[in-house]
Amino acid sequence: MSFNFPPYGQGTYRVFLYVNGWNMGRYVANLGPQNRFPVPAGILDYNGTNTVVLAVWATSDDGANITEFELAVDSVFQGGTGPVASNNPLWEARDSF
């Protein structure tokens, strides 16, 4: 699976992409070339709830306008390894320093 942003050159903004607390990449709309961010096995919980966070900031007075953003299924594979295990630690608040 991968998250896809609009192609290069559409807008002047930057985005950090987080999936279930993991940083999956940084997208710069007017710089390129990367606009596809694959999510490796073990990050998504295929049987539960997932959280996707976009930290967006504008780099011009025009503001930030994301025209397209999608989750795409790149390929489907069958194999003998069984279900994908997702044993990542849960988020918890920490004491401030």
UniProtKB/TrEMBL annotation:
Domain annotation Beta-galactosidase jelly roll: ranges: 2-62
Alphabetic keyword roster: Glycosidase, Hydrolase
GO MF: beta-galactosidase activity
Pfam families named in the record: BetaGal_ABD2
SUPFAM superfamilies membership: Galactose-binding domain-like
UniProt superkingdom: Eukaryota
InterPro entries reported in the protein's UniProt record: BetaGal_jelly_roll_dom, Galactose-bd-like_sf
UniProt keyword RNA-binding present: no
Annotated protein name in UniProt: Galactose-binding domain-like protein
